[in-house]
Amino acid sequence: MIDKKEFLLHSIIRAYIENLEPIGSSQLKSMYDISYSPATIRGYFKKLGDEGYLAQEHISSGRTPTNEALKEFWNEKLDFEIANVDYKRLKTLAYNMGCCVFIQQLHVNKLQRILNIEDVYMILEFSSQSEEFSPFEDAPNDFAITVKYSSALYRFLQGMIDMDLNDILDICKQVGARQLYDELSRYITKSEFTILNVKEFLKFSVMYDLEEDTINNFIQGGVMETLKEGVHFENMLPTGYIGISHNTQINKQKVKMLVVGELSKDYEYFYKGII
């Protein structure tokens, strides 16, 4: 059961996200018809401030949640799965809310056959198991890649016939089959990666003077390769920002989606709006 302190912290966080301004005790009480007196609320505000969850510019001003408070709040609230996303709503909300969304198609291609060309190189042919590719309409259903021949790799790949592309990619990374891994990664990044509202990402990249390698890792899709589902903060983004990653579907196509924006955005509203 949520206690008073946690209830008031969640209340002031919601109020701040809605108004983006410091919130006073009387204001919070009237906004949510809270039964506690303003004095009681101020007492809890002080405790939360001492614990690093609320900040106050000066003694007579209202409080604002700290980055630490917002991080804990979203860690709890965004721990859920999304079965399907409406692409048009996603695009609209990304632009309206000032978020950037990175989308990587998760392939349903399977390795169909391997052609040995005179022990010089190999052609790996992949076939698609789905006809649904929106929003990646230009991506081909079937494709092939070429790698240098080696007898060990050829035998190794024979055991992967009819295996999913993503599983093959993971195995190549684990066993150090670098050339094959690079070729598969290059195909994935080139053909089936898109960014919604890239201007927002570039804006905060300049604002926080991100390293060129970091920017390229996002823009070229490299960040999606090892990205795990869940919520990400300073390990990936500048302080004050959040990245939320989900494996989901867009128009029946499996995708990995990364939403990036400021901690103060209303992500509950965002996710309710895109499903």
Task: Characterise this structure.
The chain is an alpha+beta fold and 275 residues long. The protein has 3 domains: 62 residues, Arc Repressor Mutant, subunit A (Orthogonal Bundle), CATH 1.10.10; 107 residues; 84 residues. The protein has 11 helices and 10 strands. Strands 7-3-10-9-8 form a 5-stranded antiparallel β-sheet. It has a 3-stranded antiparallel β-sheet with strand order 4-5-6, covered by helices on one side. It has a two-stranded antiparallel ribbon with strand order 1-2. A hairpin with an 8-residue loop joins strand 1 and strand 2. It starts with a helix and ends with a helix. The mean pLDDT is 88.
Question: How are the elements arranged and paired?
Answer:
Blueprint (H helix, E strand, L loop, with lengths): L3 H16 L5 H8 L5 H13 L3 E2 L8 E2 L1 H11 L9 H11 L2 E6 L4 E8 L3 E7 L15 E6 L2 H8 L6 H11 L2 H14 L1 E4 L1 H10 L4 H8 L10 E3 L8 E10 L2 E10 L4 H8 L1
Antiparallel strand pairs: 1-2, 3-7, 3-10, 4-5, 5-6, 8-9, 9-10
Helix pairs in contact: 1-3, 7-8
Note the main attributes of this structure:
11 helices; Arc Repressor Mutant, subunit A; alpha+beta; 275 residues; five-stranded antiparallel sheet
| Number of continuous helical runs | 11
Mean pLDDT: 88
Radius of gyration: 24 Å
- What is the approximate shape? elongated
Estimated share of beta-strand residues: 15-25%
Q: What is the count of β-strands?
A: 10
Largest sheet entry: 5 strands, antiparallel
Segments where pLDDT lies below 50 for 5+ residues?
none
Question: What's the helical proportion of residues?
Answer: 40-55%
